[in-house]
Specification:
Rossmann fold, 23% strand, alpha/beta, 17 helices, binds 5-amino-5-deoxy-1-O-phosphono-D-mannitol, globular, 27 strands, single chain
Length: 606
């Protein structure tokens, strides 16, 4: 949830740390702070609010030091105050620490520490005092001893005021990456802030401690045994993490979709055989044939992409498929055996609930595979195979391009399984063709952005809103409602069209906005009847429908057209106008589109 960054090298640390925090702000943005050390003195600054307010404070002073750590916070323990902002310091002022995670037994540790004067309400301040208690001249040993007593999750970077040559980093459940530059090192919660400086990285695993010194990196486990780590190369381009002239990352990422979708499917579609090849599955044909159940585990937007996958696996491959919200999965005794294939779907690859659910599925003997965006993320490394979705850095909190690419990859998996079972080559080829046509068709939807902006202005002042869809468009309705609520704060609900009359229709009154996805597929007539029902109650209808459908205007007050495509592929196209609608509504309401209140991009706590 929080973002942490550290620097050691020959440059002034403070500006680099601030730049890094800006890149990490999507992980948390209620307060921020940084500390550098120079001549055995800590110099620190903290502020409540976004990184801009920290930057303002930094303009008023010069912070000298070639080593430092910084943090952007999403509050878990303690309110949003300067005192609770990181870095935290030991009571004697000698050790500073930034922490992402939760120390579950902090009360017990407080008892162990006895009489310490705390400045904040955070669990993190207890941890830095614990490290100080064990410090006898060697910071790594002190961190190791302290962590042996900790229950919970952490990604930490620790610094001693008298040691300008080393930073100590450790992880358990919260990600940490070390970037290797030219005579300098960066440490961060994810690779995004490193991209501007290096693409050579070392990923820490749970239970590892790194001593990052000017002379090099040494890595250990919590038993003080040295571990050899590989340096990996990240092929993300730093330019992809810039707004590139767009007002917001979200708008830029919506427009990225045709290109990154091509990145996702490139080399993976076999038009001639009407199939897909996703090598990362790591299963033999025999193992694939034995799969009798698929479970798709995800949270939020990723779970709506998973719902599209369910339709595809069942229709193309005939494999019973369930979608499980990760936070529920492990508490409901799921039925799993050695023929169950479980996919964890996650943009960040760090979502705590998804990760925990995958671990549970693995414990029960399933094949676990990842469909992940962030390269080297925990889910990518803990699963026994899977596929990167190649959406590139997604920095807006509201997910857009990752959703599209997740849906694309799930369709490809369904196609691959389908063709190895019952799916005909002709149908396979039609799906391949439909998938290949998506970027051009998506372009046609994006061209309508001015019209969608105009429509958004008509809907911006409503306080409540319904999204309706049926079949493959039900997940589209779910995603449309989530996008609108999370960035505009308009209360939005989504229902399968046929479900409305079982309760929610009681809420409808004259002028109540209903956004309906009613494209020309097998459920068009059913959806039409549902719209008749809402229209009869005086609802105001915005229809997303297929190009050329003039008849829909009999029911709809406003219409957005999408190009025709195969039914299973429709959700990829039909979601794009809803992303734009949510975006323009939020902008017109002056919302902080990229950093909506109370949310963080990567949810690394349960
Ligand atoms: O990183 P993940 O894909 O695992 O994240 C899952 C959800 O937290 C995420 O999709 C969330 O719902 C977004 N805010 C949606 O825009």
């Amino acid at each position: 949830m929080c973002g942490i960054i550290g620097y050691i090298g020959n440059k002034q640390a403070a500006p680099l740390l601030l730049q890094g925090l800006r890149r990490l702000e999507y992980r948390g943005y209620d307060s921020a702070g940084l500390v550098v050390t120079d001549n055995n003195i800590f110099d620190s600054v903290k502020s409540v609010g976004k990184i801009d307010s920290l930057a303002e404070k930094l303009k008023q002073r010069e912070m000298k030091g070639h080593i430092g750590i910084a943090h952007t916070r999403w509050a878990t323990h303690g309110g949003v105050t300067i005192e609770n902002a990181h870095p935290h310091f030991s009571a004697d002022g000698s050790i500073a620490m930034v922490h992402n995670g939760i120390v579950e037994n902090y009360r017990e540790l407080k008892g162990f520490l006895g009489d310490v004067s705390y400045k904040s309400e955070t669990d993190s301040e207890v941890l830095v005092n614990l490290i100080a208690r064990f410090y006898e001249g060697d910071l790594r040993t002190a961190v190791e001893k302290a962590l042996q007593k900790v229950r919970g999750t952490y990604g930490i970077v620790v610094m001693h005021k008298d040691n300008a040559d080393c930073l100590i980093a450790a992880r358990m459940g919260s990600p940490l990456v070390i970037g290797i530059g030219d005579g300098e090192y960066y440490l961060a919660s994810d690779a995004t802030p490193l991209l501007a400086h290096t693409n050579q990285v070392v990923f820490l695993n749970d239970g590892e401690i790194a001593e990052v010194c000017r002379s090099g990196i040494q890595t250990y486990n919590l038993k003080n045994e040295q571990i050899v780590k590989c340096v990996e190369q990240i092929d993300w381009d730093d330019a992809k993490a810039e707004k590139q002239g767009y007002d917001h990352f979200m708008l830029k990422e919506i427009h990225d979709q045709p290109t990154v979708y091509e990145d996702a499917i490139r080399g993976r579609i076999d038009l001639e055989d009407g199939t897909a090849h996703l090598g990362g599955l790591n299963m033999t044909p025999e193992q694939m044939n034995k799969v009798d159940r698929i479970i798709l585990i995800a949270c939020g937007t990723a779970s709506y992409a998973a719902m599209i996958g369910k339709y595809a696996f069942e229709r193309l491959a005939g494999i019973p498929t369930e979608v499980d919200v990760a936070s529920e999965f492990r508490y409901r005794d799921p039925i799993i055996n050695e023929n169950t294939l479980v996919f964890g779907i996650s943009q960040s690859g760090e979502t705590a609930d998804t990760l925990a659910a995958l671990r549970e599925a693995k414990r029960k003997g399933a094949f676990i595979r990842g469909i992940v965006n962030v390269v080297g993320s925990t889910i990518a490394r803990e699963t026994d195979g899977g596929t990167y979705i190649h959406a590139g850095p997604e920095l807006a909190v509201a997910s857009t391009k990752a959703y599209t690419n997740m849906a694309a990859i799930l369709l490809l998996y369904a196609l691959q399984f389908g063709r190895s079972r019952r799916l005909s080559i002709a149908t396979g080829q039609r799906i391949c063709k439909a998938l290949l046509e998506i970027p051009e068709k998506m372009g046609k939807v994006l061209e309508q952005k001015d019209k969608i902006k105009e429509i958004a202005l008509k809907y911006k002042d409503y306080k409540n809103c319904f999204f309706l869809g049926r079949g493959v468009n039900y997940p589209v309705a779910r995603e449309g409602a989530l996008k609108l609520k999370e960035i505009s704060y308009i209360h939005s609900e989504s229902y399968p069209g046929g479900e409305l009359k079982h309760g929610p229709i009681a809420l409808l009154s004259a002028g109540f906005p209903v956004i309906a996805i009613i494209t020309k597929n097998q459920l068009y007539d059913k959806m039409w009847s549902n719209l008749e029902e809402v229209k009869a109650r005086g609802a105001r209808v915005l229809a997303i429908t297929t190009e050329g459908d003039e008849k829909v205007k009999e029911l709809a007050d406003d219409v957005i057209y999408v190009p025709e495509t195969m039914e299973l592929v429709e959700p990829i196209l039909n979601t794009v106008p809803l992303q734009l609608l949510a975006y323009y509504v939020a902008v017109s309401l002056n919302r902080d589109v990229d950093r909506p209140r109370n949310l963080a991009k990567s949810v690394t706590v349960e």
